[in-house]
Structure formats: structure tokens, C-alpha cells
Amino acid sequence: MRCAVGCGHVHLGSDTAYGLDAVRGDPSHPVNNGLACGRGIRESADPDGSWLTRPLVRENGELRQTSWSDALARAGDAIADAMADDPDEVAVLGSGQQTNEAAYALGKLARGGIGTRNYDANTTLCMASAVKAYYRAFGSDAPPPTYDDIPEAETHLVWGANPAVAHPVMFRWIRQSADDGDLVVVDPVETKTAAVADDHVAIDPGGDLALAQAVLGHLVETDSVDEAFVSEHTEGFDRVVDELPPVEEAASEAGVTLDEVEKLASLLDAPTLVYWGMGVNQSVRGTATAGALVNLCLASGNLGPGSGPFSLTGQANSMGTRVVSSKGTWPGHRPFEHPDHRRTVAEAWGVPVSRLPDDNGPGPVGMFESSPSVVWTVATNPLAGFPDATAAREVLEDSFLVVQDAFRSETVELADVVLPAATWGEAEGTTMNMERTVSRVRPATETPPGVRQDLDIIADVAARVAPGLLPRPSVSPSELFDEFAALTEGTDADCSGLSYTRLDGERAVRWPAPDPKSEGGYRYYDDAEGSDAPEWSFPTASGKAQFSALSGSSLPEPADESYPLTLTTGREADGYNTGVRTRSDTPDQPVARAHPDTIDAHRDAVADPEGDRRTTVVSRRASVPVTLDPDDAVPPGLVWLSIHHPMTNRLTSPAVDPQSNEPNFKQCAVRLEHPETTASTDLLAAEVSD
């Protein structure tokens, strides 16, 4: 498991030493049937980065090795002292890199033991807008379609995503299906996915919502709406239509032609899967745009097998954190604000209801803005992964920082306590992929003596700050699985019919699975044998799907005279998250892709436009030295930086979507400055501060 496609891997442990001898795709796994991508193999078999093998504590400004008892005592004392003052003084940040069992235990401790609102996971930085859109439309989270629908679709509309790079195995299925249909990409950049597509609609950065509105408007004007489906199974359509901008105006705002709008609208006549990714989600308009894409599916009748809205998730267990970790909902997607669900969880955990927060908190960016006195990060690297990373550094420097991770990172370098944890191939548990399939993961090798399982570390901290909440280590993953699965019984994300025994036998099972024999398929849809028509049932107040009428926020930083260019960020083919495990080829300074015309127009800011293309990218928050790479795939006026480089997020904006709290990573205003100019400015600033 290396990304949210959820491919099963076979890990072969070394016979003579610690580690893995070989990694390959698992031919018996029902998700990938033996397929695997190069990145997934390499990162498991031979990851880059520096392994953490001993607990560390900070003394006299330096990290030094210590015993587990000392490290855990320091972490526990700091958390307990902060809790005594105010539970919200403790901020806990989890990850889509944990197993379900570890994510559940961390959430149980954060919410039920510590009682903090300041708990979340790095998955909110990438998927929260899609989650909010699903809830608004269907009353429940997660995509309705599954991988089984990919070969049934005739049109594959990829919007703000690059699965050729991010999800190679899944993209293979998409391309195979598109051989007899259409593959169309909407993206400002000609990505690797766009390069092999039948058509590429190159919108302006931030123009996604306007384009989706233009396409819906065209469907309305040409009487192409599936009136029967809309009338029988949805609500809110008329309000959305009343608030649509004129098609020509929306197309102009998106930076596309009316012909391109017409082409996109015509594609929806056939069974269509609409995929989207971070280009949509990571925006102050993320929830509104994701909702607008769902609107297109509803209006065109593209809901049901072989069609529908399909958000593409990144991390291996992003879905699991949404179902079990208590970050955005209680286990099983139980809503925070509902008193009955809070009571159910409190009784199951044996804690007072009053200890459980009645909302899910301010999100990752918001929790840092509250300047907590203790921060505990688990399998994540906020110093590189948060927007406006310089501000994140200031928060971490001022807090007592506990870092639980398998690899050394920028965040580790600031830590007061470092707790070395096991990683994939060393841990036991389960994960959930983006189509809701739960799979088992098992250790293929022992861990070094200084490394512990995530579950045992969390349980040991719990024993010090909330005695009796979790079993004392060592903790049985299967017992934790049974506990959270039972808490999902009767919910929209019912996993109560799953067990390790069942997963060992079937390899992987898709939820909802409310009993030991059932497995989820396409959601909200029942086409029972013998029925005249399929039946639809949505977990909304009315039982019908809801059109989204969100208008979206204004973009926080449009280009202007002082910052005339737009920065966007994206994935590299072999990069992963903040790059800690995939950085062997990462230069000291980022490589910025830009159109040759952009470089020529700003040649005064480049050391030597014909040779030495060093320059400095400057935003309202920071300046970062880069080397420019001329690239026709990037439109003029845009600067592209890798999300994996630790310097990139010094530049990005901390503005968040008002619905989802997801940051606006994909767009901010920047300019280029000559390296000598920036160096002189930095030197002057340092002299003034001295």
C-alpha cells in the first residue's frame, strides 16, 4: 500500500538481516491483481531518507539519543501539563500514513483522553473539500463509484488531477477503457495525463468553478438535462440554475472558448466518470467546485454503474482516517454535532460525554493559528507540508514538539522528543483505499530494537495521560479493529461485518459491509433483479440527492503589478508527499517549470536566460531560490513547483476553503527576482534585525 489506489504488495523479508529483499505486486489481491507501479516498489524496497532508529530528546539545543522510558515520560509530562491548563493547548496531527488501527487509537486518545478540539490529520490538506461536497450532495462521504465502473464508462473526464503520475495502476485501467471512448483532461498545465488524452482543456488557474458552471449552463440551454432523473431523485436544481452566470461570461472567466464548453457538455451524453484531484480540492473554492462537478453528474444523469463523481485520493489510508480516526466525524462517519452519536461514542470509550468536543475543530491550519503549547505529529511533516511554512515553523519552534515518525524530516529537526515508529512492511493492521476497500497489511520483517509500532507508542502515551483508555502495550491490532468496526455498526460507513478472519480469507472487502457476507458496490443504488427500474436512496433528510448552490470564495491572491505571475504546485512522477522517502534526486533548490515566453518576459530577473537560469520566486510570505526549466507544457504567466520539495510551501497561501478548511495550495501570486537582488535584500533585512 503506497497510495490510495490500494494495490496489494508482496513483501519478502531478508533471510540474513533486517529489511526487505524484494517487493512485487500481489497477484491474488483483488484490487490490483498483481499490478504495481515503479514508485510503490522502489519506496518499499529501498526508500530514500534517513531512518529513525532510536528515541531522541533535545538537550542544550541538540537532539541526542535516549531511552524509550525517558522519551515517553517527557512527551507524557508535557501533554499532561498542557491538558491540566486547557485540553486545546494540545494539538495532535495524524496522517493518511497510519493503519486504521493506529489512526483509531490516536483519535480515541486525542478526543476521548485529552479532549482537544485541536486534532486533525494531514488528509484534510488534500481531501476535505471533496468530503464536504459528498456530504452536501449525498449526505455521506466517499465516492459512489468503484473501480468496477471504470471499464463500463465511455467517457473519462479528468479534472484537476494527474493520475498518470499520481495513480499509475488506476490510470492504466482508465486508458484501457478510454480506447473505446474518450479521455479528456481539464487542467491549466499539459500534464502527463493530458499529453495522452483525446483532448486537453487548458483553463486559467482558478477557473474550475466557472467552467463547471458554464458546462451546466450549456446543458440547460440545450435541453440536455436528464429531466426525469433530476425530478425524481434530486432537489435544489432550480435554485442552482437561477444563480448560474451566463455561459459566455463563465467561459471567459475560466479562460476557455464556447466550443470547449460545448465539447465538455456533449461528452456527458455518454456514461461518464468525472475524476478530480488536488487541482480542484486545494482551493478556497474547493468545496464549491467539487460540488459543481457533482452537479454535472446529477444534471446529466451520470449517476449509476459506469458513471458518477470520483475524487482521487493520494495517501494510502486517507479514506481510513475519514472513517475511523475521529478527526472530522466520529467512527463510522457519525456527526460531531449530533448528541446521540457523541453519547454512543462516549459510552463505548468509557469517558464523560462532556470531554468529547461537539465540533471537529478548526482544521490543521487553524489549529496552528491558535499557537498550542504542545504539538504531537504522527507520520507527517507539517514544516514542509503546511502552507506558509515559515509561519508553521514559528508555531513549532514556540511549542513543545513531539514527533512520531519512521524517517528524519524537517519537522524532526525542530522536535523536543522524537519517537521512532515502524512503517509499511513492518506494521500490522488494515487500510482503506479510495474506493472504500479494506485490506490487511502485515509485517514482512522485524523492526530494529529502538523502533516501536505506532499502536504501542500511542498506547504508552495514553497510559501516562489517560490511564485505562487504551490497552497497555503491546496492543493487539485485531482487538482495536474489532472495537472501531463495532462502532461503525448501522452507519453509512458500516464495517461491522469485517474481521481479520474475513480479510485473511478474502484479501480485501469494500464497505459498507454490515454482515459477514455482504460487500458494498455502487452506493445509493439498487438495481435488484426483477425490478422495473433502479431504486435510489440517499442518506439526506429528504432521501434525495442535493444540488450544490455554493458560489465559492474570491481567489485570495490574483496576479497584480507587484506579483504578476501565478504559482501552482503539483506532483512529480516519483515524488511522494513531502519527499522525505523519495528525495535522492531532489536538488538543494527547487526546479521551477515555466513557459519559455514567461522566462523571456522576465529575463531581467534571471541570472542568464540562455544558460544559468537561476532566479528567485517571491510571494507575499517568502522568497525561494529556484532554477527555471523552460517547459511549453506550462502556460505563459504560470510558475510550477513540485509539492515534494521542502521549500515550496514557504511561498503558498494559508487561506482556506470556508467550508472544508482545506488550504489554497494551487494558486498564489508571485514574481521573479534576480538572485543578486534577493541576496542583497535578505542581507539588508538581516542587518536591520541584528
Automatic annotation (TrEMBL):
| UniProt-annotated stretches for the region Disordered | 567-594
Q: List, for all copies, the residue spans of the domain called Molybdopterin oxidoreductase.
A: 52-463
Q: Entry's Pfam families? A: Molybdopterin (PF00384), Molydop_binding (PF01568)
Keywords carried by this UniProt record: Iron, Iron-sulfur, Metal-binding, Oxidoreductase
One GO MF term, please?
A: iron-sulfur cluster binding
Q: What is this protein called?
A: Nitrate reductase
Question: InterPro entries attached here?
Answer: Asp_de-COase-like_dom_sf (IPR009010), MoPterin_dinucl-bd_dom (IPR006657), Mopterin_OxRdtase (IPR006656), Nitr_red_NasA (IPR054894), Prok_molybdopt-oxidoreductase (IPR050123)
Span of domain Molybdopterin dinucleotide-binding: 565-669
Q: Which GO terms describe its cellular component?
A: membrane
